[in-house]
Amino acid sequence: MSLTVVLAEDSALLRDGLVGVLTRFGHRVVAAVGDADALVERALEHAPDVVITDVRMPPGNGDDGLRAALALRAARPGLPVLVLSQYLERSYVDHLLRLGGELGVGYLLKDRVAAVADFVAAVERVAAGGTALDPEVVRQLLRRGADPVSRLTPREHEVLALMAEGLGNTEIADRLHVSGAAVNKHIGAILRKLELHEDVAGHRRVLAVLAYLGGGA
Predict the structure, then answer these.
(1) Domains (ranges, CATH) in the chain?
(2) Model-level pTM?
(3) What is the pLDDT of residue 190?
(4) What is the pLDDT of residue 96?
(5) What is the pLDDT of residue 116?
(6) Which helix (H) or strand (E) holds 65?
(7) Are 168 and 138 in contact (CB under 8 A)?
(8) Which residues contact 80 (CB under 8 A, 6 or more apart)?
(9) Rounded mean pLDDT, 31-41
(10) If you write DSSP's letter for every residue of 2-57 in order, what string do you get?
(11) ∠ CA(10), CA(105), CA(134), 5° rounding?
(12) Residue 174, Cα to own-chain centre: how many angstroms?
């Protein structure tokens, strides 16, 4: 499926490179801009399938790109947003996941863009309403070891970490070299230990990831 994309990145070289990558994979970049104000304007104009933005951008050269993304998500709840950052900052992840619903959000370090197929897969996952979190975010959270996630076994930690990255059951099974049935069993145990029963409102997988992200906050 071809996606329409609005892209914001102040580095012209990287911006052009991202446009080229997305186009090569069959997606259409309807606007590629270099500042946060233009991002808001173009995203509201084009109503894209997904917004991709750098965090630090003009005009303030602070976290203008992130704040623009949050404003867009508030104006259009559920707008899929993938944020790129040079540095790991967990507060950015928290803001994205907790404003306007948990679905359709991603946070990747810019180094991940070099893995072109994985980057495009993350864009597509976010556009489809999933999550895509940088593995380094997941690794740092694993080291926190706070309740209720500390109740999980090491293997359940691994499964939940991959869920936090946005992987589906088949992808998790392939990554861990286990059967799909084993993955289903682990996910069931995770949901039980986090007390996310079937009568809990919301997407239980996303709620599990939020519990994971919120551990020790």
Answers:
(1) 4-133 (3.40.50.2300), 139-214 (1.10.10.10)
(2) 0.70
(3) 87
(4) 65
(5) 94
(6) helix 64-75
(7) no
(8) 49, 50, 51, 104, 105, 126, 127, 128, 129
(9) 96
(10) PPEEEEE-S-HHHHHHHHHHHHHTT-EEEEEESSHHHHHHHHHHH--SEEEEESSB
(11) 75
(12) 21
